[in-house]
Amino acid sequence: MAPKPLPNVLEIKPYVPGLAAESGYKLSSNENPLGCSSLAVEAIKTGLSQLEIYPDGGSNLLREAISERYGIDADRVICGAGSDEIFQMLARAFLAPGDEIIQSEYGFLVYKLVAQQSGAKTISVPEKDLVADIDAMLAAVTDKTRIVFLANPNNPTGTYLPFDEVRRLHAGLPEDVLLVLDAAYAEYVQKNDYSSGLEMAANYDNVLMTRTFSKIHGLASLRLGWAFGPAAVIDALNRVRGPFNVNALAQLAGIAALKDEAFAQKSADFNNAELDRLLPAVRETGLTVYPSVGNFFLVRFPQSDGKTAEAANAFLQSRGLIVRNVMAYGLPDCLRISVGLEDANTKVIEALQDFMAA
Ligand SMILES: *Cc1c(COP(=O)(O)O)cnc(C)c1O
């Protein structure tokens, strides 16, 4: 008889990344169109002469750098090969078969994938106007609930929850349920009522905040993320992580990227100026564009012949514009478009104008 994987593993639908662009513009993975900090590139070069040496398994210097940058306790920080790996560790440390996680309807897909690996069930709670519905999420809590995942801002919707609402979610959760605040796009948000959740992660025994170097820092290829939370949660994650989970070049680049606040600021400013240009221009074509505080936006297309999201995707592709179909999120009428460089964004606007006018 052939080796047999676990049944819950065979239920997993593997994550499908954004299409790569052989030519044209890749606007399918929310990458930083400005690249990354030149300091990060220089830092990696210093590591090239030591590729035979194992990395620092505890990512100690990087955790120190994070601690200094954010004014938080380094002992309560853990680094991962992307925040994806942190979610994997969470599932390994906190989820057993029969357990439940809660996420909002259009929440980031990776939460469900890691839950499935542990045989846990994902309860997906309907959203209101593409924003997480706190009352409905709280109503979904059972004695099997172990983790509530909230991406804030959320991908693929681009929407965010005001901090009051996040507080209300936390206040309504039992103390033994872990609230994971995924703040992958926090640096882009310019709203007075937004918070990444850093203070909550500092002050409560059941709140963990995750961050990534993949977006504002432009280091997606290196796979680097981190989490900050209660000592007991961080301790559990450290027990299940691989001994050398973050490679040495990623650690060097991360430390350098944190120092280059000017690059991060430039990235956020550029993104937000381009979003301010993109959103009204695409709305002008008659399409529904959801408000976004991330480095991407979600567009809803009509269901009428020739004007569907599928048709639009093909049309954009014919113009060399690779965007993300979000069918896997249950949004078959929508496309998610990352903010690119100016010329790419202008081409997106022109293409959607032509598509709608045709
Ligand atoms: C991009 C993204 C991440 C980052 O994942 P990494 O593994 O760190 O690259 C996390 N959460 C959300 C919601 C994202 O969109």
Automatic annotation (TrEMBL):
The keyword Transferase applies. It comes from Ponticaulis profundi. This is Histidinol-phosphate aminotransferase. It is an enzyme of class 2 (transferase). Pfam families: Aminotran_1_2. Homodimer. GO terms for molecular function: histidinol-phosphate transaminase activity. The modification N6-(pyridoxal phosphate)lysine is found at K215. Belongs to the class-II pyridoxal-phosphate-dependent aminotransferase family. Histidinol-phosphate aminotransferase subfamily. CDD domains: AAT_like. It comes from the Bacteria. Pathway: Amino-acid biosynthesis; L-histidine biosynthesis; L-histidine from 5-phospho-alpha-D-ribose 1-diphosphate: step 7/9. The keyword Amino-acid biosynthesis applies. InterPro entries: Aminotransferase_I/II_large (IPR004839), HisP_aminotrans (IPR005861), HistidinolP_aminotransfase (IPR050106), PyrdxlP-dep_Trfase (IPR015424), PyrdxlP-dep_Trfase_major (IPR015421), PyrdxlP-dep_Trfase_small (IPR015422). Residues 26-347 form the Aminotransferase class I/classII large domain. Its EC number is 2.6.1.9. Keywords: Amino-acid biosynthesis, Aminotransferase, Histidine biosynthesis, Pyridoxal phosphate, Transferase. It catalyses: L-histidinol phosphate + 2-oxoglutarate = 3-(imidazol-4-yl)-2-oxopropyl phosphate + L-glutamate.
